[in-house]
Amino acid sequence: MRYPFPVGKSDFIQGDEAIARAAILAGCRFYAGYPITPASEIFEAMALYMPLVDGVSIQMEDELASMAAIIGASWAGAKAMTATSGPGFSLMQENIGYAIMTETPVVVVDVQRGGPSTGQPTLGAQGDIMQAIWGTHGDHMLIVLSPSTVQEAFDFTVRAFNLAERYRTPVVLLTDAEIAHMRERVYIPNPDEIEVVERKLPANEEEAKLPFGDPHGDGVPPMPIFGRGYRTYVTGLTHDEYGRPKTVDAEIHERLIRRIFNKILSHKDEIISYEKFMLDDAEIAIISTGIVSRSGVRAVKILREKGIKAGLLKLNTIWPFDFDMIEELAEQVEKIYVPEMNLGQLYHLVKEGANGKAEVELIPKIGGEVHTPMEIVERVVG
Amino acid sequence: MYLKSAYDIRDKYLRKDMLPTIFCPGCGIGSALQYTLRAIDDLGLNPDEIVWVSGIGCSSRVPGFVNFDGLHTTHGRALAFATGIKLANPDLKIIAFMGDGDAAAIGGNHFIHAIRRNLDVTVILINNFTYGMTGGQVAPTALKGLRGTTAPYGQFENPFDIADLAVSAGANYVARWSVFNYLQGINSIKKALQKEGFTLVEFLSPCPISFGRRNRMKTAPELLRWYQKITVPLAKAKKMSPEELEGKIVIGEFVDRDRPGLVREYEAYKKRAKKMMGWEE
Ligand SMILES: Cc1ncc(C[n+]2csc(CCOP(=O)(O)OP(=O)(O)O)c2C)c(N)n1
Ligand code: SF4
């Protein structure tokens, strides 16, 4: 396999470019999108690369169509991705719900920008955290990852595909405008250095007849992709194990939705990832995600120099959320600070996790700039 | 043409465990479905290579009843899903079964763009002038004066002529019949299924329950007579003045051409890309 970019060496590239290259190395062969700042460069890179690797890159009429197209491509057997920013992400929500309900592996990149509405197109914000988790209607479960460097944008994109295929679910890569446009040194591995997960296909006719069952007991049914003679019917309506619509049966609805929840929640130890920085003896914890974590690390160093025992928890996975781990941390520290580029979204999750065991204080910032380390330090020092 | 019995067609292609269908007595959707299955049967197409796609509405329930791979999607967006399926696996033949509201209202944008791209798909479009599934609101195809629950005093907007729209947007094949023109209907579907690019067969279809009841046509025979009254064959329509055509619907075959389909265009594009990058001669 020949790649249209150098592999097995480092390159100095933007986050958006890193996401596109990672997708191709993870096996993505279908991209559908609609241009929007600050995610357009992902599309532009995919447009350049996809035809060369015998994949498809297509510009759809809008984001509803882009989301629809990648779901269709996934049922036809392709690993598929789309990328957008806030307003486009809002348009995708209906079909993200469809992907959850039909258990379709797809990757959706949301490069956040200032909102609401068309807001601040060229400036960063972390205002889509709640939208990523709760954007679509109904009881639902999906996976949300958040990188804080360009290297992580690459690594987490590969992981997003692997999790999507492993759990037959949409995975959102929720990233920041700063990372999308920032250039950093990124190691682009050789294909044989990357772990690539493929979706579970039905092993036999029996399994193929249960596209929404649980033949392996892990909550993840094998996916009988179209064109292989399985004659699978897929609907966004509540359906039984065979895929037959059953819209008024409470028991069937409960069984389906609970399984969709549990296939992710019962594997949350495999899915949830975070990094702890100087937290072991900390009395003050800073919890953050994405680009803000980088100011957080610096803030912890400054606080330590001042003799304050601070530490940082950087969330790589935003959803599912490890409420128990936050509670344990809250038992250890006196106070938790949550700096985020919005007026409080991650804050609510942390507060719920802390469960009153420690005070939780929000450090909000909006308008397009990342918190400086000193802004965090000053709030902590008081 | 020799016609197999309807029972044979049913037994060969329907999913027994999904029956009975949700369709009301006198509904035309079953007829359009039967014509589609007969066309597939006559052509000897392999069901394993066909995927049915639909949006939301009564018409869109059809893929659930046939024993094929099927994707029952969100309201209006079937053709966007179909774009992904077709481009990801061009060996699959795609039939999109959709309602007039599905195709021309909420899905209007996807519809015109799928046609502009010449997406390789055969659309079977059920035009009943109404939103059947949600109980009889007006559709953008409703002729002026027709009633719906959201236009209780008669539609005051201009209707879309879907076939006309499809011709202008660039479809390779467009025909419109009422479900009572069964031979023409089957023949058109057969033609459509054999062509590359975007093909559309629109059926004027009785919806006695949601539509007829509100327009003083409670039964299928009453709707049949009304369709006979308002439809004009293409050849005759050509000799009529715009005034005479007011409130009428032209039926027939509107276009039959062979522009390259999206799959073929993309294959050529891939070749061009590799050549421009010096990857291939
Ligand atoms: C986003 C969205 N809006 C509205 C609906 C409600 N809805 C379901 S079917 C339908 C209209 C169906 O009419 P048509 O497409 O003409 O199909 P028919 O039922 O007449 O065959 C509507 C509005 C929906 N399911 N999704
Ligand atoms: S409501 Fe109308 S379109 Fe729907 S099944 Fe009944 S008759 Fe057919």
TrEMBL record, chain A:
User: What's its EC?
Assistant: 1.2.7.3
Which Gene Ontology molecular function entries are recorded, alphabetically?
A: 2-oxoglutarate synthase activity
Example GO biological process term?
Answer: response to oxidative stress
Q: Where is the Pyruvate:ferredoxin oxidoreductase core domain?
A: 282-376
Enzyme class, first EC level, given as a word: oxidoreductase
- InterPro entries associated with the record: PFOR_II (IPR033412), Pyruvate:ferred/Flavod_OxRd (IPR050722), Pyrv_Fd/Flavodoxin_OxRdtase_N (IPR002880), THDP-binding (IPR029061), Transketo_C/PFOR_II (IPR009014)
Pfam families (UniProt xref): PFOR_II, POR_N
Q: Which residues form the Pyruvate flavodoxin/ferredoxin oxidoreductase pyrimidine binding domain?
A: 22-258
How does this polypeptide assemble, per the annotation? Heterotetramer of the KorA, KorB, KorC and KorD subunits.
What name has this protein been given in UniProt?
A: 2-oxoglutarate synthase subunit KorA
Q: Which PANTHER family match?
A: 2-OXOGLUTARATE SYNTHASE SUBUNIT KORA, PYRUVATE-FLAVODOXIN OXIDOREDUCTASE-RELATED
Question: What domain of life is recorded for the organism?
Answer: Archaea
Tell me the SUPFAM superfamilies matching this sequence.
Answer: Thiamin diphosphate-binding fold (THDP-binding), TK C-terminal domain-like
Query: Which reaction does this enzyme catalyse, per its entry?
Result: 2 oxidized [2Fe-2S]-[ferredoxin] + 2-oxoglutarate + CoA = succinyl-CoA + 2 reduced [2Fe-2S]-[ferredoxin] + CO2 + H(+)
The protein's UniProt keywords, in alphabetical order, are: Oxidoreductase
Listed Gene3D superfamilies: 3.40.50.920, 3.40.50.970
UniProtKB/TrEMBL annotation, chain B:
Q: What Gene3D superfamilies is this protein classified in?
A: 3.40.50.970
Return one GO MF term: thiamine pyrophosphate binding
**Entry annotated with the keyword Transmembrane:** no
* Gene Ontology BP annotations: cellular respiration; organic acid metabolic process; sulfur compound biosynthetic process
Enumerate the spans annotated as Thiamine pyrophosphate enzyme TPP-binding domain. 56-203
Q: Which InterPro entries match?
A: 2-oxoacid:Fd_oxidoreductase (IPR051457), THDP-binding (IPR029061), TPP_enzyme_TPP-bd (IPR011766)
The organism's superkingdom is given as: Archaea
Its keywords, alphabetically, are:
Oxidoreductase
Name the record gives this protein: 2-oxoglutarate synthase
